[in-house]
């Protein structure tokens, strides 16, 4: 047996527990690192919202977001994709600066168009698909969720960062051009 394998450090329970702790920290840090990367390098996109719900007693105060791009006209792609398949929604700004879905693709666009990556959640009749982008909740300070819920939906906007690969992270909630809430990367 080599001298390295006989070393008391390699047989130490402290080393084993330390490795377990490092692995757990890495598992927690990876999603946070991705979110920080999207915040730092992503393009800002403003999305219109459909109705918003208030809060959950178990998770604290937050608003449930329903970006209008959650239901997308899929055209011929509707017959080729299934639940949980990845899709990319191509976004273009309208005259008011609101980004709208203009196309749905089954692969990232290679022509430089801005696209947000999501997963198919189901068919919504005809050629429409429900798509999840991971932008369904925005945590708020205690007591503010109901105030935001009561606002007219056509006034509230969600600003997100979209990375070159299509990953998205919420940045802030806006109403009438003013910041309601700013999201931190954590």
Radius of gyration over all CA atoms, rounded = 21 Å
* Mean pLDDT across residues: 82
Strand-residue proportion: 25-35%
Which outline best applies? globular
Low-confidence stretches: none
Structural class: alpha+beta
Q: Provide the helix percentage.
A: 10-25%
How many strands appear in the DSSP assignment? 11
Please name the defining characteristics of this protein.
five-stranded antiparallel β-sheet, 186 residues, four-stranded antiparallel β-sheet, 3 helices, alpha+beta
Write the layout of secondary structure elements.
Blueprint: H1 8-11, H2 13-41, E1 43-48, E2 62-64, E3 71-73, E4 86-93, E5 99-105, E6 115-123, E7 128-132, E8 137-139, H3 145-149, E9 156-162, E10 168-175, E11 178-182
Antiparallel strand pairs: 1-9, 2-8, 3-7, 4-5, 4-6, 6-7, 9-10, 10-11
């Amino acid at each position: 047996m080599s001298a390295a394998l006989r070393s008391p450090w390699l047989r130490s329970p402290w080393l084993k527990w330390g490795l377990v702790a490092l692995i757990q920290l890495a598992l927690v840090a990876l999603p946070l690192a991705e979110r920080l990367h999207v915040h730092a390098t992503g393009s800002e996109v403003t999305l219109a919202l459909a109705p918003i719900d208030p809060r959950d007693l178990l998770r604290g105060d937050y608003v449930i977001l329903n970006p209008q791009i959650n239901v997308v006209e899929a055209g011929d792609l509707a017959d080729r994709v299934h639940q949980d398949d990845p899709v990319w929604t191509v976004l273009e700004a309208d005259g008011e600066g609101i980004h709208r879905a203009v196309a749905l693709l089954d692969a990232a666009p290679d022509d430089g168009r801005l696209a947000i990556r999501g997963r198919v959640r189901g068919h919504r009749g005809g050629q429409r698909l429900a798509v999840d982008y991971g932008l369904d909740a925005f945590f708020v300070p205690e007591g503010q969720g109901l105030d935001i819920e009561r606002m007219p939906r056509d006034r509230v906007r969600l600003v997100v960062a979209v990375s070159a690969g299509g990953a998205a992270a919420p940045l802030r909630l806006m109403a009438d051009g003013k910041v309601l809430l700013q999201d931190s990367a954590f």
